[in-house]
Amino acid sequence: MRIAVAGMGYVGLSLSVLLAQRHQVTAVDIRPERVEMINARRSPVADACIASCLAEKELHLTATLDAEAAYRDAEFIVVAVPTNYDSGRNAFDTTQVEAVVRQAAAVNPQATVVIKSTVPVGYTAALREKTGCRSILFSPEFLRESRALYDNLYPSRIIVGGDLADPAQAEAARRFAALLQEASLKPDTETLLMGSSEAEAVKLFANTYLALRVSFFNELDTYAELRGLNTQEIIRGVGLDPRIGAHYNNPSFGYGGYCLPKDTRQLAANYADVPGN
Question: Which sequence positions are flagged as catalytic?
Answer without folding.
Answer: 259
